[in-house]
Amino acid sequence: MYKILLKKELNPTVTLMEIEAKDVARKAKAGQFIILRVDEFGERIPLTIANCNQETGAVTIIFQVVGLTTKKLNALEEGDYLLDFVGPLGKESEIEGLKKVCVVGGGVGSAICLPLTRALFEQGTEVEVILGFRNKDLIILEEEFKKYTNKLHILTDDGSNDNKGLVTDKLRELLNDTKYDKVFAVGPLIMMKYVTLLTKEYSQSTIVSMNPVMIDGTGMCGGCRISVNGKQKFACVDGPEFDGFSIDFDEAIARSKMYQETEREKDCNLLK
User: Fold this and answer.
1) What is residue 163's three-state secondary structure?
2) 195 and 145 within one domain
């Protein structure tokens, strides 16, 4: 059993929790994730490790309350327990030697950007971050990002934070003047597709974090399969991060639409 140490509402639909999971906290790296079950009747859902504290054994997860399982999870309070909390899973982000990086996040995908941004910043990389949200009320983790970025740009679709635009608008502006060692993109598939189409114009190396439906997290079920350079890969064990230029985004988007009307799809995406 895994104790909930902290629960915090980041916005009306997004919740942060710290879970006591000492073995996970001891080994976790940026880019990895966990799979949890709320109780014996619950399904398995993957969530990115947003932070971990090796001293206290606390692992931070951030999730959007959209389906049955995330609603059950959100109904729990500090002091309650989760049945299963397995990880770390997936491959860690490959960031060694990077000197100048741009991280692009969309919506709740920004939560996945935070541990990556922190790891880059703490190794001495110059980090510029672009985050996009629908409106100012949905902005999350702004103060946390300020601690670990050299430059932070937050845009909203409606301009309610006085900075209207899409993440691709700001990224194009930056790419006109700057060459990065890597661009990292995390968010909805359609956002990552258009980020990658843009960076291809500039021959700018780009890494994306794929978020297909996952079930077991070990590559056995095949639910998270994607096409990478025409070959089948599994996001859970081969990723979740891949070279953006190698991804068949149209296929991934088409597969995701098969689940859009179900609660399962909403719960099993990696913080889409």
Assistant:
1) coil
2) yes
HSE (CB half, 13 Å, CA atoms) of 64? 20
Q: For residues 127 and 64, is the Cβ–Cβ distance under 8 A?
A: no
- What is the tally of structural domains in the chain? 2
pLDDT at 227: 87
User: Which two tokens mark 196?
Assistant: 């990658």
> What are the tens digits of pLDDT across the range 154-195?
999 999 999 999 999 999 999 999 999 999 999 888 999 999
Q: Tell me: do 153 and 229 sit in the same domain.
A: yes
Does residue 95 sit within a domain? no
Which residues are CB-neighbours of 265 under 8 A, at least 6 positions away? 67, 213, 256, 259
Render pLDDT for 150-164 as a digit per residue (tens, 0 to 9): 999 999 999 999 999
Distances in Å between the Cα of 240 and the Cα atoms of 2, 24, 36, 234 are: 25, 18, 17, 8
Q: Which of 36-66 are b and which e, b meaning 16 or more Cβ less than 10 Å from the residue's Cβ? A: bbbeeebbbbbbbbbbbeeeebbbbbbbbbb
Read off the CATH number of the domain in which 31 is found: 2.40.30.10
Helices (H), the chain: 22-27, 68-75, 110-122, 142-147, 167-175, 189-201, 235-238, 249-257, 263-268
Q: How do residues 43-81 score in pLDDT, each as one tens digit?
A: 888 888 888 888 899 999 999 888 888 899 999 999 999
Distances (CA, A) of 23 to 27, 79, 162: 7, 19, 43
